[in-house]
Amino acid sequence: MHYHEHYTPDAASAVQLCRLWSARVDALERHLSANTWALAVAVVLIVYPIARIVIPALLQVVVPDAVRTVLNLI
Length: 74
Hints:
The protein is mostly helical. It is about 80% helix and about 0% strand. The chain has one domain.
């Protein structure tokens, strides 16, 4: 057996992963109310696009200043 064969997932591990994931989602569905799910989905739908715009804009503003500071120290 080669070293990479040990880490290669087979069909059985994929099935086990699906069952584990399904069990986790089922547990969430049982313990969270419909209002909680609606709130979570609404928050994700609002926050995700904002984060996709704001985080890169902040990085673009902050990183050049940090790079200039480091270059001036050298």
